[in-house]
Amino acid sequence: MFTGIVEELGTVIGLTELTGLSELSGAARLTVGADLVTADARHGDSIAVNGVCLTVVEVDAHSFTADLMAETLHRSSLRAVRPGDRVNLERAATLATRLGGHLVQGHVDGVGTILARDPAEHWEAVRVGLPAGLGRYVVEKGSITVDGVSLTVVSVGVSEGADDFSVGLIPTTLKLTTLGHKGVGDPVNLEVDVVAKYVEKLMATQGES
């Protein structure tokens, strides 16, 4: 479990396809350079990379490595990262962690696309297109995770027949996360508020009874 408060910008060192092992067909191994999140990391720990919960398989003082299954590559934008790319990093929360964002599982629901950026004096408005089927979980003033960053939805709408939403990015977010330099057309990992999905499931179950 995470909070959506990015701790560090890491740098992708490499993404290597794993071949020759049938049970790992379509999988890959990702290595990320980082100093803060590796300070107390151990084998088996969880670290969110651009909002994707990954398990550490190797770690040293300045980098960690994690395996990405085919489902992770299919569901997230990590399949497209290249050496030198910056990524948002957050260690798993503890019982003593301040919940500065919202409850984030690190289970990406889909990949959205940045549709527009509108800089202002003290913040920047960003509009993101939603994959089909996710719009019903996104509400004004609700929470959403974009590339691992916990954000409040400013508005929801429709662009060219598809659902979208907007968020406001303060200077700290622009400076300390990858959202500060992503451009129109770039992909972003999205995780909707898990509470919305549970409520939908419960309501559907009640309707069947």
Q: What is the strand and helix layout of this fold?
A:
Layout: E1 8-17, E2 28-33, E3 46-49, E4 52-60, E5 63-68, H1 70-75, E6 86-91, E7 110-119, E8 124-129, E9 143-146, E10 149-159, E11 162-169, H2 171-176, E12 187-192, H3 194-208
Antiparallel strand pairs: 1-2, 1-6, 2-5, 3-4, 3-6, 4-5, 7-8, 7-12, 8-11, 9-10, 9-12, 10-11
Supply database-style keywords:
single chain, 209 residues, mainly beta, Elongation Factor Tu (Ef-tu), domain 3, 2 domains, six-stranded antiparallel β-barrel, 41% strand
Characterize this entry briefly.
The chain has 3 helices and 12 strands, in the order βββββαββββββαβα. It is mainly beta and 209 residues long. The radius of gyration is 17 Å and the shape is globular.
Tell me about this structure.
Strands 1-2-5-4-3-6 form a six-stranded antiparallel barrel. The chain contains three helices and twelve strands. The protein folds into two domains: 8-91, Beta Barrel (Elongation Factor Tu (Ef-tu), domain 3), CATH 2.40.30; 110-201, Elongation Factor Tu (Ef-tu), domain 3, CATH 2.40.30. The chain has 209 residues and is mainly beta. The chain is globular. Helix content is 13%, strand content 41%. The mean pLDDT is 92. It has helices at 70-75, 171-176, 194-208, and strands at residues 8-17, 28-33, 46-49, 52-60, 63-68, 86-91, 110-119, 124-129, 143-146, 149-159, 162-169, 187-192.
Q: What is the CA-atom radius of gyration, in angstroms?
A: 17 Å
What is the fold named in CATH at topology level of the largest domain? Elongation Factor Tu (Ef-tu), domain 3
**What overall geometry do the principal axes of the alpha carbons give?**
globular
Major sheet details: 6 strands, antiparallel, barrel
Helix content: 10-25%
> Helices and strands: which structural class?
mainly beta
SSE order: EEEEEHEEEEEEHEH
Supply the number of helical segments: 3
The figure for the number of domains is: 2
Q: Report the sheet-strand fraction.
A: 35-45%
Roughly what is the average pLDDT, rounded to an integer?
92
The N- to C-terminal Cα distance equals 32 Å
Low-confidence stretches: none
CATH class of the largest domain: Mainly Beta
Number of strands: 12
Spatial arrangement of strands, main beta sheet:
1-2-5-4-3-6
CATH architecture of the largest domain: Beta Barrel
